[in-house]
Amino acid sequence: MPNLYLIPCPIAEEALHTVPPYAQELARNLDVFIVERAKTARHFIKRLGPEKAIQEMIFVELPENQRPEEAEAAFLEAIKAGKNVGLLSEAGCPGVADPGAAIVALAHREGVKVAPLVGPSSLLLALMASGMNGQKFAFQGYLSPKRPELAKDLRRLETLSRQQDQTQLFIETPYRSQMVLEVALETLQPNTMFGVAQDITGAGELIRSLPVKDWKNSGIKTLEKLPAVFMVYGR
Fold this sequence. Notes:
This protein is an alpha/beta fold. About 35% of the residues lie in helices and about 20% in strands. The protein has eight helices and ten strands.
């Protein structure tokens, strides 16, 4: 029976070294990929130096919030033909903060072996570097994109964190990172820990975790428009 391989991608463009050699070797020998974005996936596989021409490989997109029928059909066709399939996220590990979970669930229903490969995860790396509770934590995806609603979301996560003794993680689009920082420092309690992890493993990496009351003396007043993980821990 063929396998579904969950293949990690670099989080940052220049960080190919963060993907282990064994995962790179396996990926360069596959023919069929279910991906979040075909252009990014082709670029990644091409950098691995596959023996087969990139034009001969199949890349089927599984975009977020869209029906997965095309990707599911391509997966089933490949499996029936005896071919292994690779699942690729836009960055980091597939199936986590990523639409690939739908294909993983289908693989389990079809009795296909699911093989997760070791690689970089922005959520795990951010938590590791946060100094917050790594025993109990939760990922909340995206919060509200507007300031008043975001403030309410942050207060809710702060309360939940205190009640559950649980680190709360969330992400936001790069162009809203500065807004998140401003609203968090205006909204959260002085002793609440607030963390930012931007461009992890990249040239612009910034990881800082402090009580809200200490952020004004941190020297960080603005955030670049880079991918970020944010963390809240109400102590």
